[in-house]
Amino acid sequence: MANMFINKRKAKTTIKVFVFAFALIFVTSCSSSKNDNREHEKLVKTSVAEELSSIKEKSFPAIIEEAEEVKLAFRVAGPIYKIHVKEGQYVKKGRLIAEMDSRDYVVQKSAAEAQALQLKSEFERVEELKNRNSVSENDYEKMKAGKEMAEAKYKNTVDQLNDTKLYAPFSGYITEVMFKNGELVNHGTPIVSLVDVSLLKVVIDVPASMYIKKNAITNIECTQENIQNETFPLTLYSNNIKANNNGLYKLYLYHSPRAGSKLAPGMNVSVNISFKAYEAPIVSIPVTAIFEKNGNSFVWVVDNNVVKSRQIETNNLIANGHIGITHGLKSGEQVVTAGLHLLIENETVRVVAPKSKTNIGNLL
């Protein structure tokens, strides 16, 4: 009886061992099958589509110019009585710049005034006689013409006397004084040079590619290498519609300097123009991610480790081997960049992890 109990116990133990061994073989087989499938999955390198900024920037060299420079001159001739300004001096609009010895013009004015008054009095008497029909029409017209000529001569002498003083037509800086007190000058001879710096001009030459984008400009500013950490806003106010001999178009800009501005005429600056390069959003991917099929451009998009082909529309080449995509891809989508012709639709792949920029040689 005891032997039967022992045999039954041994049989149960043998069955348990057999079941455990079978289960272990099954699990190992399944695991091995999964590993085999993983080993047969293609390894692919990928890149993520990145949205490009629609705003681009280009720079052009330029020189700051004054808005206006004039040579101030008397409209009459004579000796200079006094020059009231010095070189480098800032003057406001209407300031007396210089005056001429006016003695001769005072005498001319007095003589012309006396003649005008005399002819006016005579004309009034003739006019009274005309009203009584005691003078001919011809005599009346002659007297009227003589009076008007005398009045015009008097007005001219008044203007000449006023022109013996020279005033600033706008606010600005005196950059040059050409004569000294007492020197004799002719009418129209420049006495001083006055520059207007309330506005500063900047003229740049741009290629046709920039010229046709002038309406897409979003911002213009300039920098000066000796003025650190400061930019100066510019405004486009005009342009040449015809290119010069070098095929470049002139754009005319101006800057309204703030109080204490460090910019001055003659300085070299770099003009930075920001403009909208694309109307619609554009993403960028490596050129190596594109393959041709039936005359169209495609990419392999990886979604949950499955590749699917997708038709795209491309734009211009971009730096560093990338190209713009205008249709078919969104920012953040993952595309295959190598072994494109070895893939098939809806194939499961394994994405190769990108090399770390900080773990050189993958040693960590």
Explain the overall architecture.
The protein is an alpha+beta fold. Among the domains are: 87 residues, Efflux pump adaptor protein, beta barrel domain (Elongation Factor Tu (Ef-tu), domain 3); 62 residues, Helix hairpin bin (Helix Hairpins, Orthogonal Bundle); 74 residues, conserved putative lor/sdh protein from methanococcus maripaludis s2 fold, CATH 2.40.420.20. The protein is built from 4 helices and 23 strands. Helix 2 runs antiparallel to helix 3. The longest helix is centred in the N-terminal third of the chain and has 39 residues.
Describe the protein's topology.
Blueprint (H helix, E strand, L loop, with lengths): L1 H39 L1 E3 L1 E3 L1 E3 L2 E19 L4 E6 L6 E2 L4 E5 L2 H29 L5 H26 L2 E3 L4 E6 L6 E2 L4 E17 L1 H4 L5 E8 L2 E7 L1 E5 L9 E7 L12 E9 L5 E5 L4 E3 L2 E8 L2 E13 L3 E6 L6 E3 L10 E5 L13
Helix pairs in contact: 2-3
